[in-house]
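Example record used in the benchmark description.
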Amino acid sequence: MAAPRVVGPRRVLAGVRWALSLAARRAPAWFLLTVGTSVVLALVPAAQVRAVAWLVATSEHAGFRAALIPLVLLTALVGLGQVITSAENLIGQRVSLRLMRDLNARLAEVAAALDPHQVTDARVHALLDGARTSTFQLSRSPGAVISALSALLAALALGAAIWPFSPLAAGLVVLALVPNLVIFAWSAGFQDARFEEAAAHGARFRYLLDQLVGGRTATELATFGTGPRVARDADHAHSRMSQIQDRLYALLLRGDLIGGLVTAVLLGGALIAVLAEGGGAAGLSAGVLGVIAGLQATRGAGFAVGDVIAAGPVIARFRQVRALAEEPARQHVHPDVRRLEVRDLTVTYPGAPAPALRDASLTAARGEMVALVGVNGAGKTTLVHAVMGIVDRDEGQVLLEGVEADELSSAQRFARFGLVTQEFGRYEMTVREAVALGSPREDVADPEIWAALDAARAGAMVRRFPDGLDTQLGPQFGGVGLSGGQWQRIALARIHLRGAGIRILDEPTSAIDAEAEQEVFAQLRESSSRHITIVVSHRAWTLRGMDRIYVLEEGRVVEAGTFPELMAPGTRFARIFAEQLAG
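Model output (structure tokens):
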């Protein structure tokens, strides 16, 4: 995951090629127009120097009338420089806008293609967040490259224009490029070294800020009175990020002062050389103007090339992000899974002192409903995630119709499952869009949406909405507010629409009242003949109709059987649910 060193010449050139090819692919016409205007703009100062020399020489030897032609030319060059500068800025903004859209689209594609292991990796999250906040800088990197090349061309052209009057001054003007290049290369190395750390602090700051403004979390924090504590934590994270940035700016300031001093000495030497080498009034005027213009050109070239070097780490990180995920394989939901067999699964989370799951086994056939029960932390969700391949297992097997699940691709494996968890997504979209997320198909028809909503006992609710399936959900975009139970029914509708061979429901009705819960489970039983259904539940009455119940404790399956079998005196199951069953 560590990024390679990005401030070496090869890495800088790789960044240059990447930036230019990006602009050429995404906005070819505007890219060519940018290059053309930049080349013209780079040559204008040198042309002005030659025009001044011509003007002074002509007026000195041939009079006012003869000097009108170089005067008009010089005026035209000054006006052309003003017009092209303005046009170049507008064209650059247009290219940057298009590139930002493309970069954000690429970033979204990568995020969508990540597998669950990558999604939960803190370093991957920091890398993604850092890339997300760098898209503006990245969108301007082709412009920075073109500006750098243009500024270098301008400095060289000015050197060529000054050369006839003072070769030494010309050499010093070009040499004045070097200090700023060195300073920015040095600062880029520091930026690269601290990128991940700064990105991690930035990601935490944005996360905490989201909790303060998000509807559910903000309400909870307000009732607890702990919003200020989260605000302090957010400020601390932002402070840590700012400290890194402040140190970079301090280095840049010191470097800029040193670079400016060295540049001033070199250009001062160029002025002395112009005076010493003479060349008459024309040579002196053109030489002085060339050196002053060279001061701007070399500073501009230094900053522009410095921007390219400084963008190197950001470009390298974005290319790392692009390498995180391959083109996502399209899922084709597998509706027919006849048998699931889990053998001796053991799972240990990274950094944990002991396994969260030990030697867990279960079987289920199509048409069966099986349950996983146990106290909090017993290993139920870990078992579910290990079966689906969301977490890695240390040992054991997951067999889908006799085939080892690890032999399938992630897309093929997930295509056999439909999952609803306690922390289901509350997608603030239209009803149609929110339900259609359950299927990878792009051609989901409205009758299918309605059938899924009816199966989740949410159809009547949606029919009362003002715009039916087109109703916007959630308050963030001015939509209909839903209760926790209503959101949960929308989540259940996604599973019914998906129609995968194995349905896994982790506390699927935790936010629904008892009457609605009975309706939901009745529908699950009605459709159970076409699926393997695995339910994680803490409510005893929902377990009565299960074909088999697995009891987990401390990561182990300690009991298995039907509801009547497990209700025998002295069983762990009976002790867990004694209070509910007594009521």
